[in-house]
Write a structure and sequence with these properties.
It contains two helices and six strands. The protein is of the alpha+beta class and 180 residues long. The protein has one domain. Strands 1, 2, 3, 4, 5 and 6 form a six-stranded antiparallel sheet that branches. It is elongated. It starts with 12 loop residues before the first helix and ends with a strand.
């Protein structure tokens, strides 16, 4: 006669349920980690795009003259009558960019980056004190601070400030840069 041993029994329903619960807890824990990592990767990607957009415009501005040769007074900052508001290519000096903003961002020819509708690039230009470039001046001091900001959905992701010297018109370089 054969005897059946109790050690050769199969998997019970209780063991299956407990195993499924353990696997479920592990999956839920993993998913709670994946979400923030994915969002973090997306934010870092947006910051990289913003930095590139800011650098592109900063480099373009650095190629312009310090003072418009046709300016009535060197104290004026802003858009000139001889520049086209629709095409940055006509901007001949850095202060033409003051107050300029574009959403979506546009290249110097005026073509918009079609896939970037929620992005904005903006520029401010101001005279600053020679002894303290963080302090604004109402008159020409021979030094201007240009700040290019790039934002997405209203959140600033990149801001680059550069100092431009009147002496740089003959030398053709930017005096100093600061990036955030």
């Amino acid at each position: 006669m054969k005897q059946h041993s109790k050690s050769s029994r199969g998997i019970t329903l209780v063991e299956t349920v407990v195993s499924m619960l353990l696997v479920g807890f592990v999956l839920v824990s993993t998913l709670s980690i994946v979400g923030p990592v994915t969002r973090s990767t997306s934010v870092q990607g947006d910051k990289l795009v913003a930095a590139n957009l800011a650098n592109e415009l900063t480099e373009e501005i650095a190629t312009k003259l310090f003072i418009d040769p046709n300016a009535a007074t060197p104290d004026d900052i802003g858009f000139d009558a001889d520049d086209s508001i629709f095409m940055r290519l006509t901007y001949d000096d850095i202060d033409d960019f003051h107050g300029w903003s574009s959403s979506p961002p546009k290249n110097s020819y005026g073509s918009a980056y079609a896939t970037m509708k929620e992005w904005t690039r903006s520029v401010s230009v101001m005279h600053v004190m020679l002894a303290d470039p963080s302090a604004e001046s109402k008159t020409n001091t021979g030094l201007k601070r240009v700040t290019v900001e790039v934002s997405k959905n209203g959140t600033v992701l990149s801001s680059i400030s550069t100092l431009h010297s009147q002496a740089a018109d003959t030398l053709g370089f930017v005096v100093a840069t600061g990036e955030k």
